[in-house]
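Protein fold
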Amino acid sequence: MSLRLSNRRKKSDLTLRLLAWSNAIAVIALIGAVCVIAIAKPKQMNFLDHFYSVQRLNPSWNLTLIGYIGVLLLLSLISSIFGLYLNGKRLRRKGDHINATLVLSLIISTVSLLFYLKFTLS
């Protein structure tokens, strides 16, 4: 005679909701960092600027926005680590899996943060 236990996970519990929120925060912070990088980088001269001799270009990075990039990357890293911790606590059943988005967010934010530290500290 085998014991057949029913699945007691009928609805999402606090752990699953926190996991979804940490996943969303990590991805939104990474997308925000990419957007801030696009705004903070120096403007390149295009054909129309050259043709009309426009001299409104900024040749250097916006240093205020560079600080925000580091904060967003750190937020993504912390949120990914927290989400993977929660995901690891939940891996008990056959249908449970590791969230791939959190792993990718962790890798991308770690590598980006290392590049950020390399170029801002040098």
